Amino acid sequence: MAAIIGVLLVVMGAYELYSSPRMFMRIETETGTAEESPAFMGTVFTSIAVGLFLVIAGIAAFGFFA
Fold first, then answer.
1. Domain ranges, residue 46
2. Is-above-0.90 flag for pTM?
3. Among 27, 6, 16, residue whose Cα is nearest residue 49
4. Residues 61, 41: contact at Cβ < 8 Å?
5. How much is the average pLDDT of 46-50?
6. How many domains does the chain have?
């Protein structure tokens, strides 16, 4: 069971890390600038941090519970 949870967490984290920079680039190309909102960069960095946390938690699930 821990292996399934670990795989799911790693996949979710990998997708989050994949989609965060793409979200930034899409907003930047559609509007011409990514500075539309002062909180936008904080949102991107938080998204990257969540992705890293999910990947680490998935790897830890293998190490501690498998």
1. 2-65
2. no
3. 16
4. no
5. 93
6. 1
